[in-house]
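Let's sit down with a protein and look at its sequence and fold side by side. Please make up or recall a protein chain and show it to me in full. Label the sequence line and the structure token line clearly, so we can match residues to local backbone shapes. Go ahead whenever you are ready, and we will take it from there.
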Amino acid sequence: MGPRPAVPDRRAVTVGAARRPCTLVVCRGCCCGDARKHPGHDHARQPERLRAAAAASGGGFQVRTTDCLGPCGQANVVVRPSAAGRRAGGRAAWVGFVLDDDCTEEILAWAAAGGPGVAAPPVTLELQFIRPPGRARAGGRG
């Protein structure tokens, strides 16, 4: 028999979700992003700030908006781990009461550092962690 054909090194192949960066999911539905519910908060500025920082990160993290995340009384953001963070044991962190610039900056710093599973969240941000709505209803631990 002749020489064996070269087999590609599968460890070097990275596709799809394997490269997924940390993702910030921001609620902008009927109430979380509504000035009537949270007067005095610049609801347009926060997603603009998050998107600008994501663009400046060069793919380090991304931002998505959604119509409703669930716990409407807590005006929240979800920080989803990157693929590397998930492999390291990171899970989505739900951050409630994200209405001021300081909190937004802490979320950005954590995402830029790698997010869940890669970097520890700022201690003050941990104080704002809330249970995901499904777990809260089921009585599970967050």
